[in-house]
Amino acid sequence: MGWMADETGLDKGPANHVALTPLSHLARAAAIWPDREALVYGTVRRSYSDYQARVSRLASALAARGVTPGDVVAPLLPNVPAQVEAGFGVPACGAVLNTINTRLDLETVQYILGHGGAKVLLVDSALIELAEEAAAVQKTPPLIIEVPDPVAGIEATGRHLTYEDLVAEGDPAFRWIMPEDEWESLALNYTSGTTGRPKGVVYHHRGAYLITFGTVVSWRMVLHPRLLTVVPLFHCNGWCHFWMMPLVGGTVVCLREVTAKGIFDAIADEGVTHFGGAPIVLNTLANAGDDERRPLPHVVEVYTAGAPPPAATLAKAEALGLNVTHCYGLTETYGHVVENVWQDKWDGSAPDERAALKARQGVAYPMMEGVGVFDADGSPVPLDGETQGEVGMRGNAVMKGYYRNPEATAEAFEGGWFRSGDIAVVHPDGYLQIKDRAKDIIISGGENVSSVEVEGVLMHHPAVDLCAVVAQPDEKWGEVPCAFVETRGEVTEEELIAFARERLAGFKTPKRVVFGELPKTSTGKIQKFELRNRAKDGA
């Protein structure tokens, strides 16, 4: 289909077919805007020329130390310039970028290093002991490169080669190793699954390249935006935003700690025009004290994803000068692939109606072939705003699959769509709205928390006979874990929370424990929907 009668000589070649990769964006930007500001962090100011040279040095130095195409390099870093530079420098030597969540517990970091097989670990000096412990148990421990942060007053320990010394080893004229096939792996991102063992989501160059174009369109961008890194760069590679900025000659402004003052200062002092973040960020800004606020010199475009922001929060955010766009996606889809496209006819809506419209997740991004909601038989649900089904996605920003897990990949792609595990309805205008999470994931402050993982930890306590963990609404974090527990011995709420805190990352630790018999079906299955209702009532 689609072929003419005689296609002789109409073949792909180097003149008419080049593998798509976000690396092209930085190479182009450095040629066009060599002196324009590309990367900012406190007193650190890098032009596009500087940015490209440092990326080249990093790629060269990694290659000289034995990193070959297909090897994994893992940054364990907050939102600092080294994290941004690694986003280009690691793939520029043909390697795969594996950003690791800085908030994870030791056991999970150990698992990710072992499963992903990182050859080099770039580590913030504040996290060096975690990295050393995690690396020590590996069969082939990764080379640790320490990244101090003078801007934040965090000095190197002196136990490892530093990032700046590594970069100094490299050649600024190093020729980047570009992908021969755009299906080659670009990044490996571990998602918090429902089993406690995270799955490794593999991105290809093509998807990252195309989502950068889609985001420029959907976020209504023009040349030279200034992006604040509020979204952690270990979350879907910062929703792929830093790969996008060279495309439009933009500036990445790094923010190590997400605080209201830090965001207000960046907008006022650095001219920030765009940032993304979980609804908790909007709450933080809306509830900031007078000593933290600064007048905003212009309207700032904000992407928010996760639990829909409450109407009151949206109203406060807009009053500050933030234009909020609600979007939705998963680690498996490079971040956001569904957007709430605002319609002109909604402009005059009453505040509550406006908030309800903005709370919907919306429609497919430009680079997606389709986003639908399907019933148990795989048929699309009617557009009535009531019939629920599972969200399915298809398009250029869907992962290659789960690393070293073909069974999970096949299950996720059954029927020719990526099955999200999220339950939604579709309104008559085609906008979808998430209603529940089929896999019981709790989204706390933008972090995914596996209820199964938390339950597994609590069940190790000798006094716990049975437990179930569900999301409890929280004004600050959106949702927090709430544990319902049946006991066989004496234990207090404080003791159980402390027990969990010793074994889990802070955001995964239950904030409330309720004792008593758990509601069950006739077959003994715990009725989590009933527990969710109880958690809401007790919030």
TrEMBL record:
The keyword Magnesium applies. Residues 27-403 form the AMP-dependent synthetase/ligase domain. GO terms for molecular function: ligase activity; metal ion binding. Its EC number is 6.2.1.44. Its cofactor is Mg(2+). PROSITE patterns: AMP_BINDING. InterPro entries: AMP-bd_C, AMP-bd_C_sf, AMP-binding_CS, AMP-dep_synth/lig_dom, ANL_N_sf. It is an enzyme of class 6 (ligase). Residues 453-525 form the AMP-binding enzyme C-terminal domain. Keywords: Fatty acid metabolism, Ligase, Lipid metabolism, Magnesium, Metal-binding. GO terms for biological process: fatty acid metabolic process. CDD domains: ttLC_FACS_AEE21_like (cd12118). It catalyses: 3-(methylsulfanyl)propanoate + ATP + CoA = 3-(methylsulfanyl)propanoyl-CoA + AMP + diphosphate. It holds the Pfam family AMP-binding. The keyword Metal-binding applies. Homodimer. Belongs to the ATP-dependent AMP-binding enzyme family. This is 3-methylmercaptopropionyl-CoA ligase.
